[in-house]
Amino acid sequence: MYFAQLAVNGLVQGLVISLAAMSITLVFGIVRFPNAATGDVMTVGAFSGLVVYPMTGSLLASGIFAVIVTAAVALISHLLVFRRLAGRSVVALLVASIGVGFVLRSIMGLVFGHQPMVFSMPLSRPYRIGGLAINPLDLQLALLAAVMLALAFAVLHLTPIGRQMRAVADNPSLARVSGIRSGRVLAALWVLAGAIAGAGGVMLGVKTVVNPEMGWDMLMPAFAAAIFGGIGSPAGALLAGLILGVVQEMSTPFVGFTYKIALSFAIMLVVLLRRPTGLLGRIEGVR
Amino acid sequence: MSILTIRGLRGGYSEVDILNGIDLDLDDGEILTVAGTNGAGKSTLAKAIVGLLPRSSGTISFMGKDIMPLSAEARMGLGMGYVPQVANVFANLSILENLQVVAGSSRQRIDELFETFPLLAERRRMRAGSLSGGERQQLAFARALVPKPRLMLLDEPTAALSPNKVADSFALIRRLPSLGVSVLIVEQRARQSLAISNRGCILDSGLVALEGDAKTLLADEKAAELYLGNIGASH
């Protein structure tokens, strides 16, 4: 039962990783570079939620506000930086994204300071299901993540702009000669990727403490999940994030809090040695 | 009346020109075969016309409009359709999605195309990447026909087909002018392609070496010797 409890806790942690990984994998699948600013966009989401929460007392309102802000931040970063670097090397775009992340982190530090801040959530009694204790807050967060993920998949598979995103990811030249306007598609992609990262940021902020470095710390597990799931595969990112979250939590009794991240990386390494394209990946683009 | 007029077209992928000053005309309702040896610049010419060549100069007019300053997306919007030689479908999208993503797509137009290509209609939910070479070719044609183009550019449309599917492909191309579509085919199977064409041109080192009526070209001894191979060799 103890391990089942850890697994449940790990699922919530895994959803945060999944959201971050999906944001990374969406951008990689279409713009073809690892966006190192993703973690800092999450931080912007966490601080945005933190601003609204005391005024409304609503996690949903905080989440919606954070998603709007981070979608706007991601779109602005595209318009001001990444669009201007279109056609440059992956390394150039990666370095630019590190720079964008640094700027966002600095702004957060200037505005909010570097002291850890928390969402002052009301105390609640956990639900008892079998022998498992499930925190109502975790359920709310899981619901927020599930809605966000469902929304992302719905956009990708059920809307014209989502299909166009997948087409551009699949075959950029063919997309051009099919009359697909890449400017519109890229703008929509950055809005979606930013919104997903923002939702992840609010979840991370609620579960831990909010400070300007929180997103940067999240970047490695998020990259690991994106690669583990198969870079460019949103479904892979979701699955890998959940697996990494559960493995990290369940390994805590054996390796302690400090090394639990290392264990999940070791598992990722073994899987990638056996299947270099990741769990669901073909290294072709967003599918 | 000329639907496509090319004058002094030069260009390539890097600093070296592959096209060295091509002049070419395609009349409305016509099928034109562009043949030539490997490396003559046939596929490069098709890419230059649709706007996918990184570097090009000269003039290309489509339906009387200078399209050189336009992007590939804008050129397609004017009424061009292009079927590349390879990677000519969105492999990770379903057949239906391949048709839905094209600019100007509508349910009615997709239904019309499913009537023309009933095999695709039966398999509309299948992933395009799982189709055979012939099925992919049908989907590539259907995708290019979605916006009702006035001009179709086909780059080696029979290259990936089994011999028994080649005749089907040429039969389909032959029907296109009756749908109001002019056709420019870049083709290695020059004899078969010329047999369904009104006119042909043969490229050599990025220049038009021979041009004329398709039947005349097929009967031309010099063309046969230098560019078209022995009769039957290309079949």
TrEMBL record, chain A:
MF (Gene Ontology): L-isoleucine transmembrane transporter activity; L-leucine transmembrane transporter activity; L-phenylalanine transmembrane transporter activity; L-valine transmembrane transporter activity
GO annotations of cellular component type: plasma membrane
Keyword Transmembrane helix tagged: yes
Membrane-topology descriptor: Multi-pass membrane protein
The keyword Lyase is annotated on this UniProt entry: no
Transmembrane region(s): 6-29, 59-82, 89-112, 132-156, 185-206, 218-247, 254-273
Annotated keywords: Amino-acid transport, Cell inner membrane, Cell membrane, Membrane, Transmembrane, Transmembrane helix, Transport
GO terms under biological process: D-alanine transmembrane transport; L-alanine transport; L-isoleucine import across plasma membrane
Source species, domain of life: Bacteria
Main location: membrane
Compartment list: Cell membrane
InterPro entries recorded: ABC_transp_permease, BCAA_transport_permease
Pfam families assigned to the protein according to its UniProt record, in alphabetical order: BPD_transp_2
Similarity-based family: Belongs to the binding-protein-dependent transport system permease family. LivHM subfamily.
Name this protein carries in UniProt: Inner-membrane translocator
Species this chain originates from: Nitratireductor indicus C115
UniProtKB/TrEMBL annotation, chain B:
Protein name according to UniProt: ABC transporter-like protein
Domain of life: Bacteria
Keyword annotations of the record: Amino-acid transport, ATP-binding, Nucleotide-binding, Transport
Family membership: Belongs to the ABC transporter superfamily.
GO process terms (BP): L-amino acid transport
Listed SUPFAM superfamilies: P-loop containing nucleoside triphosphate hydrolases (SSF52540)
Annotated GO MF terms: ATP binding; ATP hydrolysis activity; branched-chain amino acid transmembrane transporter activity
InterPro entries per UniProt: AAA+_ATPase, ABC_transporter-like_ATP-bd, BCAA_Transport_ATP-bd_LivF, P-loop_NTPase
Chain ranges of the ABC transporter domain: 4-230
Pfam families: ABC_tran (PF00005)
CDD domains: ABC_TM1139_LivF_branched
